[in-house]
Specification:
mainly alpha
């Protein structure tokens, strides 16, 4: 394994600027809402999704 001298981040940035090189940064995938509207599925379990009273906040 090759040993390299310890360099600070700023020194590496200066060297890279001097040499005119840049790193390639790929953006992380962020899921987004599609424009498609999906139909609601059948209520196979016959569950009641209505609220019995308003939700308390706080």
């Amino acid at each position: 394994m090759k040993k390299y001298p310890k360099l600070s981040v700023k020194r590496v940035q200066r060297y890279m600027k001097f040499l005119g090189i840049q790193s390639i940064v790929y953006k992380k995938y962020r899921p987004h809402k599609s424009e498609a509207v999906y139909e609601l599925g059948e209520n196979l379990l016959n569950r009641d999704f209505t609220a019995t009273k308003p939700m308390k906040n706080g």
